[in-house]
Write a sequence for this structure.
């Protein structure tokens, strides 16, 4: 209910004159809102600073402190003003909310203080306008995190607070994940790091040709073949340590399946597997060729360093998130390579003894040229080839040099954006939920107002006053407007549940009736005429039936009916306040079978005023609170509470 | 020559939207000030205080003093969250926009309200006729009525009881024409409309409904 709506409501209501000639039923009387005594100026004194505003401005939000009668508690009769002993600077924002409908968050004030003021004046933090919402949430989260960190630091300072009954597994896992927790874990961390380094260096060194002591051998051997035992021992030691570490991690992992699938464990496995395969494979010549290839995988041990280095992990993550950009670069490069390779091939086709034997062979030339490497192993000899070759190298500069800085800047941008995008998505959900809530709140308020029988023309004035007293003037008038629309079109607003139930009841052609009572004419598909009179009688009949069911707790059948009816007619008009005993239960045309079944119970309704009263104010007060979050639960709550009060 | 090439490249990729942004600037600079309070008081049947409070609300909502059709549709839609009020709002907008310039300013607003709230029954009926007569030619045809009726039923939304069918608006239009169209010539003139409405008790009695809106 924004400020804007209150201004435009009289306009919308006046425009309802346009429905008058079309209405097939008489329109309901307008709510007796006491004519405004003219707008008056209120003075609000907040710690000495006087704010003056129209009373109407404050009345726009009736469920806040200033908009409701709660402010009367702060009224000072001597000075004729409302005195609040609060921060005047913050009050400025609160008052502006009433004026403009948007709550802004002050930049230079503490978020905590702002929250407290909002809580005092009855404003929900969700009311913060979109312009300030993101910042408000950021600051709040920052605050909360800082407080949480302080708490954690306090706790951690007391000592390594391990839960008392932690098993060996949990302690082990904690040691693995957080090497700084205990000395042993730290030692282990450094030892594994050392051995990874040793293993990698050994892999590198064993391929260096070393000059043996005996210079007689003409062929230089790589070190690995000169000292096979030494390297083999080192390799074994490293692999043993890595295997031990892997098995320990596997044992300590809280969720073994997840651990097995994680990237780090895969790297571990790939790092140690070649060794074992090498052990198992016999030393044949033909197989050992394949075995040699496996040794390449030993280089993956270097990736084990990523457990020791935070930066490497971040790099891996950003590469993953930049995959689309990299993919695009690759794609455009491939396109360019294919184009230029084709062109070069056909340009150089004529020459004999040319290197450009096929298009794939020209790929190498194109790549080397585009990346401005220019090895010179393949050069064009024809003039056309040289021209295209130069175009190729020029475009290579563009194609490669341009995206690379873009990707580099993408790294940082995407990283920050990822964080912000998650935040925004969460806020978007909240925003949409707010809008949906406001919408459904208005509709639900009206539907519940109808449930309370507030639309009954011939109700006793007292009881109606009881139902509707808790609604604001705005709501009364808005509901009257919606009611007028209903009368004009001879259709009623319902909620989704009833609507889908009604749909369900229509298509199979009605449920099987459980009694052999007065069943009307057979219902056809076309008999759902919107004829007004039988509908009204049927509504009263359902209401009647509910009251009878509530009085006579007899047969299971009735209770079943009630259970079945609990959902569907509940939104229509459940309260039996004003059912007159002498209503003619005349169901001519479209009756539903379950209704007919209930009408067969001829007990007169015993509606007592005190039975009716508990249900209505509860419903009425709920109709009034549309801004509060509690209204979220209202549609669900209402049938339950009603059931309790009636049974 | 290279700078010419560069300029050509830049100009060809320059944003083409510069015209529209100028147009936007123009629109936002347009403001409307209403006539004086005394003149408005003479034209309408509101008291000075009522006019003041109306204008305060209006100015708060539309600082430029004009309501264009989209804003109007948005506002009106908020009153009928279950259905789609845009078509009816369009018709209403045209009914209020007396000079047809695409925007409602305060005088239109207040003159319209004056007729609806403080006018005689005759004036109100004439206003309603003007609303239904979409092309303002003095006759309500069945197509116009059908359009109006459909837009009203659209406002109800999907979830109604009893369920809205496809031909409900058409049936309603038929009933309306049967009632109103005396000489059965397929159109309703203002005289027929006034005559029939004045004979209908329901309509007459509900005319007083909205008088205490302000």
């Amino acid at each position: 209910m924004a400020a804007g709506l209150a201004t435009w409501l009289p306009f919308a209501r006046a425009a309802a004159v346009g429905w008058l000639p079309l209405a097939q039923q008489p329109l309901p009387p307008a709510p007796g809102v006491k004519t405004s005594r003219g707008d008056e100026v209120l003075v609000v004194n907040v710690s000495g600073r006087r704010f003056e505003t129209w009373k109407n401005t404050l009345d726009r939000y009736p469920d806040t402190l200033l908009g409701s009668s709660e402010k009367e508690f702060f009224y000072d009769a001597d000075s004729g003003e409302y005195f609040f002993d609060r921060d005047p600077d913050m009050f400025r924002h609160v008052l502006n909310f009433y004026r403009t409908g948007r709550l802004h968050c002050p930049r230079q004030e503490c978020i905590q203080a702002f929250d407290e003021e909002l809580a005092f004046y009855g404003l929900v933090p969700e009311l913060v306008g979109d312009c300030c919402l993101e910042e408000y949430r950021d600051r709040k989260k920052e605050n909360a995190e800082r407080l949480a960190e302080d708490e954690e630091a306090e706790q951690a300072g007391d000592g390594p607070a391990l839960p008392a009954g932690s098993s060996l597994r949990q302690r082990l896992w904690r040691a693995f994940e957080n090497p700084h927790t205990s000395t042993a874990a730290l030692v282990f961390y450094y030892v594994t790091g050392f051995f990874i380094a040793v293993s990698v260096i050994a892999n590198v060194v064993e391929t260096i040709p070393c000059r043996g002591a005996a210079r007689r051998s003409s062929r230089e051997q790589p070190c690995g073949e000169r000292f096979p035992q030494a390297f083999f021992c080192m390799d074994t030691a490293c692999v043993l340590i890595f295997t031990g570490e892997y098995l320990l991690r596997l044992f300590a992992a809280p969720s073994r399946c997840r651990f097995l699938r994680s990237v780090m464990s895969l790297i571990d496995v790939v790092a140690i597997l070649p060794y074992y395969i090498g052990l198992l494979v016999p030393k044949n010549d033909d197989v050992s060729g394949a075995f040699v290839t496996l040794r390449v995988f030993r280089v993956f041990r270097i990736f084990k360093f990523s457990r020791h280095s935070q930066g490497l992990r971040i790099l891996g993550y950003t590469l993953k998130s930049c995959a689309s950009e990299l993919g695009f670069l690759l794609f455009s490069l491939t396109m360019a390579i294919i184009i230029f390779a084709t062109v070069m091939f056909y340009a150089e086709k004529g020459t004999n003894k040319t290197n450009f034997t096929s298009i794939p062979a020209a790929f190498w030339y194109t790549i080397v040229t585009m990346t401005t490497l220019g090895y010179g192993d393949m050069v064009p000899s024809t003039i056309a080839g040289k021209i295209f070759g130069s175009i190729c190298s020029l475009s290579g500069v563009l194609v490669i040099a341009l995206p690379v800085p873009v990707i580099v800047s993408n790294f940082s941008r995407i990283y920050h954006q990822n964080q912000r995008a998650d935040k925004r998505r969460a806020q978007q959900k909240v925003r949409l939920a707010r809008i949906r809530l406001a919408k459904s709140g208005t509709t639900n308020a009206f539907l519940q107002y109808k449930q309370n029988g507030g639309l009954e023309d011939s109700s006793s004035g007292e009881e109606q006053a009881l139902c509707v007293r808790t609604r604001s003037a705005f709501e009364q008038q808005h509901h009257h407007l919606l009611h007028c629309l209903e009368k004009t079109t001879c259709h009623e607003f319902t909620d989704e549940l009833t609507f889908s139930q009604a749909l369900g009841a229509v298509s199979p052609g009605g449920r099987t009736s459980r009694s052999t009572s007065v069943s009307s004419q057979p219902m056809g598909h076309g008999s759902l005429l919107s004829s007004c009179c039988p509908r009204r009688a049927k509504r009263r009949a359902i209401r009647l039936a509910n009251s009878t069911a509530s009085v006579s707790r007899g047969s299971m059948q009735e209770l079943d009916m009630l259970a079945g009816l609990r959902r569907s007619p509940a939104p229509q008009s459940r309260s039996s306040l004003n059912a007159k005993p002498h209503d003619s239960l005349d169901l001519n045309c479209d009756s539903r079978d379950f209704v007919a079944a209930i009408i067969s119970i001829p007990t007169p309704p015993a509606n007592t005023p005190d039975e009716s009263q508990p249900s209505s104010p509860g419903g009425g007060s709920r109709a009034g609170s549309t801004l509060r979050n509690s209204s979220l639960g209202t549609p669900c709550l209402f049938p339950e509470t009603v059931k309790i009060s009636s049974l | 020559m290279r700078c010419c090439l560069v300029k050509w490249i830049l100009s060809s990729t320059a944003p083409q939207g510069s015209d529209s942004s100028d147009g936007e600037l123009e629109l936002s600079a347009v403001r409307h000030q209403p006539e004086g309070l005394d003149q408005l008081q003479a034209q309408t049947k509101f008291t000075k205080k009522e006019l003041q409070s109306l204008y305060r609300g209006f100015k708060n909502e539309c600082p430029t003093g004009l309501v264009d059709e989209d804003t109007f549709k948005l506002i009106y839609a908020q009153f009928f969250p279950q259905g789609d009020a845009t078509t009816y709002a369009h018709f209403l907008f045209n009914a209020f926009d007396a000079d047809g310039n695409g925007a409602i300013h305060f005088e239109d607003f207040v003159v319209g309200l004056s007729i609806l709230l403080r006018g005689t029954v005759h004036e109100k009926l004439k206003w309603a006729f003007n609303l239904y007569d979409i092309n303002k030619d003095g006759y309500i045809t069945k197509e116009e009525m059908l359009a109006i009726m459909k837009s009203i039923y659209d406002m109800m939304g999907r979830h109604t009881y009893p369920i809205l069918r496809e031909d409900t608006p058409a049936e309603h239009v038929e009933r309306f024409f049967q009632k109103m169209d005396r000489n059965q010539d397929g159109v309703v003139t203002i005289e027929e409309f006034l005559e029939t409405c004045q004979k209908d008790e329901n309509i007459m009695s509900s005319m007083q409904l909205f008088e205490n809106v302000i």
